[in-house]
Structure formats: C-alpha cells, structure tokens
Amino acid sequence: MTRVLVAEDETLIRLDLRGLLEAAGYEVCAEARDGEEVRPGLVLVAPAGRHLTFHRDGSGKIVTRLDVRPLDTTHRPSVDVLFQSAADAYSGRVLGVVMTGMGEDGREGAAWIKAKGGTVVTEAEESCVVYGMPRAAEQRGALDCQLPLPEIISFLEALA
Question: Pairing state of beta strands 62-67 and 51-56?
Fold first, then answer.
C-alpha cells in the first residue's frame, strides 16, 4: 500500500512532525512539485496559493498537479480539492485526516472519500487549536472516528 502524507508547513511545525517522519524513513519534500510521481514514503507539503491534486498519468502512475483552479474555493490549497482528487485517483482507497483549522474546508472532500469507500478520521475537539474543520466534517456525517491528536499519531503509526 502506498502511504503518502500531505500537510501544510504549519501543520508539520505545530506537530514537530518533520523530524519524526524523517526518523521513520519518510522522505519529506520542501514543497510538492507539479508532475511529481507519488511514491511510498513520500511526504508532500502543499504549496501556498495552488491546489495540490493527484492524477493518473498515461502509464497509470499517480502524479501530482499544482494549479490555481478551481477558482471557486475559499482556500488555496484546498483540502476539499485534495481529498476529492485522492479519492478519485486511488479509487477510494484513501484515509483522510481532518485536523485543526478554521472554516469548513475538508467537509466536502471528506464526504467524497466516504462516498468512494475510503476512511476519514477527524481530530477531537479537545486537542484542536481551532475545531472548525473537524466540526464541519462531523456535522456533515463524513467521518469514521474522531481521535485526539496523540491517538491520531498512534493510529497512523499502526498503519505503517
């Protein structure tokens, strides 16, 4: 199974994940690049101002795309756009994790993952700095479970 983590830089900093991920053998990119082949153990940092999406190329490999479109999103990069593309590219074999953040970004993408047969975990309110994004996914009914941050980390480690 391919395991790829996508995060914003501030998330990696907040969780002090960069060092932990590198120690666990993950390759942490400074920033995702357009057309980059997605491979196991890769950690992609979503760049500011552009959506990061996954697509199958002509040979069937999953590659990244960076684009300002769609233009009708509140956030760029958007979790909704990312989750929808991941669920499509991986035929639903996706685990989406919605963590602390303002607003409702991730709500529709989480629902898309669920509709395609994937799994969604949200961060529990007690460990969130801002509970907006996880609450939105919960209110949409687009989650399998809700865990505090230390348990999310343990959950992800158990998958590795």
Answer: antiparallel
